[in-house]
Model the fold of this input.
Amino acid sequence: MLNIDSIQNGIVIDHIKAGTGMKIYNLLNLDELDCCVALIKNARSAKYGRKDIIKIEGEIRPDLEILGYLDPNITICLIQGGKIVSKKQLTLPKTLKNVIKCKNPRCICSIEEEIEHIFDLGDNGTYRCRYCEQEFHA
Amino acid sequence: MRHMIDPLDFSTEEVLALLDLADDMRQFPQKYQDVCARKKLATLFYEPSTRTRLSFEAAMLNLGGSVLGFSSADSSSASKGESVADTIRVISCYADICAMRHPKEGAPLRASRFSRIPVINAGDGGHQHPTQTLTDLMTIRSRKGRLDHLTIGLCGDLKFGRTVHSLIKSISRFEGIRFVLISPDELRVPDYIINEVLKPGNIPFEETTSLEKALPQLDILYMTRVQKERFFNEEDYIRLKDSYILTEEKMRLAPNDMAVLHPLPRVNEIALGVDNDPRAAYFEQVQNGVYVRQALIMTLLGLTV
Done:
């Protein structure tokens, strides 16, 4: 078993779907941080069998909107003084702003300058572009 | 400030109030002839649509207002690369209200975010055409005296026809609506209409390929055009095209008080002989379109008589 130092102040992004930790690391631009960051792949998980974990030492507040969209099973633990002071279970965000892009060539998003790509969560768990209402498929 | 971007932007109560106003305009046109005096409507038509543009212009002129605008993207600043957001900010300085037709879906919604004047969606690509939907509702109500407890047949291209999708969403909000969806398999209503509108609302519907079988049970028949370009091969088109042509002979199968609607233009999907049938309501629909647009302009401008 690999031992990673516990952090004093920072966050732990836990229950990341195994194998997708690197993707989240890149999307959050964690390589640009000067602080201590640990990415643990394929850690044992009672809940999911295997999981990835990211530990970040320091004052960082990741974009929960992006994380919730990428993996709504993620748990964010806020660590202060070496202890977990809060745990947040993510859910699919109701709205996504500039997280995904509309692929519909007939949508105004395809030509309008500086337009925000806004998607709303539908009842069936899929996202629709607010402008053309087309469903997003990754 | 209110806009009309999506047919569902207005509640059913607001829609009924709008239709009441449109009915009153039809009955007493002179009462409203100066209500928009010194007001200007900008018609921003980024793609040609003579019928809709003239309907809006006629509506504003009937209310005593003035009209300015352009009728194709070539004659607008869009040809110089101006964004919709910038265009509407400029137009807001010139006019009191605008109607926008744009080939890109969502363009009027984008405009409404930056506008200082009410924006009416006059059609955005294959997406929405709310004033057509209001026109359809007005015509159905004027023919049947109600918008509830109706069996509505929708026939032809139910897959790509935006007027059909908007009408289903709008009239589903009234009680006791039942749909008969008449189309070839290739042009069935999209799954999302069934899964997100009809099933969650417990709205009864049946799908059929036979217009003849459907006709006897209908209060309203809404015809659309089956377009050749929607088919993958010509054989299928030739096989199916005549099945969805409404003829005088087929009209004999329909109830005496059924009304036939069509968003127009028609090509050959309604035989010319049907025009003289008192059940044909499609030209009345065009006239109602002007009254509905008048009522909408007046409502969005917050004017009263």
Observations:
- Chain B has two domains: 7-128+286-300, 131-282.
- The first strand of chain B starts at residue 40 and ends at 45.
- Residues 7-128+286-300 of chain B form a domain with the Rossmann fold fold (CATH 3.40.50.1370).
- The two ends of chain B are 20 Å apart (CA to CA).
